[in-house]
Amino acid sequence: MTHTKPGFRPANPDFSSGPCAKRPGWSVEALTKAALGRSHRAKIGKAKLEQAIELTREILQVPADYRIGIVPASDTGAVEMALWSLLGERGVDMVAWESFGSGWVTDVVKQLKLADVRRLEAGYGALPDLTKIDFDRDVVFTWNGTTSGVRVANGDFIPADRKGLTICDATSAAFAQRLDFRKLDVVTFSWQKVLGGEGAHGMLILSPRAVERLESYKPTWPLPKIFRLTSGGKLIEGIFKGETINTPSMLCVEDYLDALNWAKSIGGLDALIARAEANAAVLDGFVDKSSWLGHLAIDPATRSNTSVCLSFTDPDVAALDADGQAAFAKGLVSALDKEGVAYDIGAYRDAPPGLRIWCGATVEASDVEALLPWLDWAFAQQKASLKAAA
């Protein structure tokens, strides 16, 4: 462990878990063809929205009979639309192992106040027992736990002949992990994650089974306009053809199109997954040899390749109470931020103290490699301060 500053730095220090790093080579010039000052319902605006939907389908390999819509309020808006529009027809199993999944549990229990809710939860670092899920009921879960670094390894735990719907928040998984769409009835994500797009817009993907539920079941509670997916008992098909519920930012749409076209140019989904896996592998190799860092995710098979969450294993730091560990982490993160080598890599506020380093597809492996000696340097600085204060 050295107190000497490393001699090189990441070319891009953006390791935030959302909004995430822009794609390599991005500049504001990529937005010059945005349909600004025009109605999003004009021919040019609608064409761009339709293109965004079709490129999403192509790159994510979404089945042809699934609907894809652009909706307001980021991934949160997309998830809430699904919960409020689809739940209540039968009992629901809420599966959670980190902050955002726990948030959906709270919404269903305290806001929707459904009578028949089962909670299957696990603490940070582990998955709940997925064999306990009853797929005759509706099921809500995150594919990748953004704040815990724990993901489901695949969709094998979901039966093809399920009776309930599967509602999956996939915001930090889409474009970096292979989603098993035939096992998923609702998939949501936001532009600002793996592709590094801008915020405020979400994507809602519906299976034919989800559409059937929408057209055959009417919730007992009122739905605000921004949540309404049906009219007269029929799906509003326009939402899934670029006719958005509210006015989208065409500047953000142009940025999403730029990211999608970049993804297509490098080889599509396979290439995006390979980039994320390579980034995570670089960081994993460092953690394996580290004397002070460990993965928050216990099982290697469930470790995220995007939102990699790390905990302190150094005996002196691990012996600190939660406040002490949080202060140690804050100091380490602050030192890296001050040096301009890594921004926004502290653990999520509800997660155990530690680090969270984004390794999604827009990050370069060379930048992850350049960051590693700086992690050791920052730890050495904080450890020296800890000893001096003892």
Automatic annotation (TrEMBL):
<dbReference type="InterPro" id="IPR015422">
    <property type="entry name" value="PyrdxlP-dep_Trfase_small"/>
</dbReference>
<feature type="region of interest" description="Disordered">
    <location>
        <begin position="1"/>
        <end position="20"/>
    </location>
</feature>
<keyword id="KW-0663">Pyridoxal phosphate</keyword>
<comment type="pathway">
    <text>Amino-acid biosynthesis; L-serine biosynthesis; L-serine from 3-phospho-D-glycerate: step 2/3.</text>
</comment>
<dbReference type="GO" id="GO:0004648">
    <property type="term" value="F:O-phospho-L-serine:2-oxoglutarate aminotransferase activity"/>
</dbReference>
<keyword id="KW-0028">Amino-acid biosynthesis</keyword>
<keyword id="KW-0032">Aminotransferase</keyword>
<dbReference type="InterPro" id="IPR022278">
    <property type="entry name" value="Pser_aminoTfrase"/>
</dbReference>
<dbReference type="GO" id="GO:0004760">
    <property type="term" value="F:L-serine-pyruvate transaminase activity"/>
</dbReference>
<dbReference type="InterPro" id="IPR006271">
    <property type="entry name" value="Pser_aminoTfrase_methanosarc"/>
</dbReference>
<dbReference type="GO" id="GO:0008453">
    <property type="term" value="F:alanine-glyoxylate transaminase activity"/>
</dbReference>
<keyword id="KW-0718">Serine biosynthesis</keyword>
<protein>
    <recommendedName>
        <fullName>phosphoserine transaminase</fullName>
        <ecNumber>2.6.1.52</ecNumber>
    </recommendedName>
</protein>
<keyword id="KW-0808">Transferase</keyword>
<dbReference type="InterPro" id="IPR015421">
    <property type="entry name" value="PyrdxlP-dep_Trfase_major"/>
</dbReference>
<dbReference type="GO" id="GO:0006564">
    <property type="term" value="P:L-serine biosynthetic process"/>
</dbReference>
<dbReference type="GO" id="GO:0019265">
    <property type="term" value="P:glycine biosynthetic process, by transamination of glyoxylate"/>
</dbReference>
<keyword id="KW-0963">Cytoplasm</keyword>
<dbReference type="InterPro" id="IPR015424">
    <property type="entry name" value="PyrdxlP-dep_Trfase"/>
</dbReference>
<comment type="similarity">
    <text>Belongs to the class-V pyridoxal-phosphate-dependent aminotransferase family. SerC subfamily.</text>
</comment>
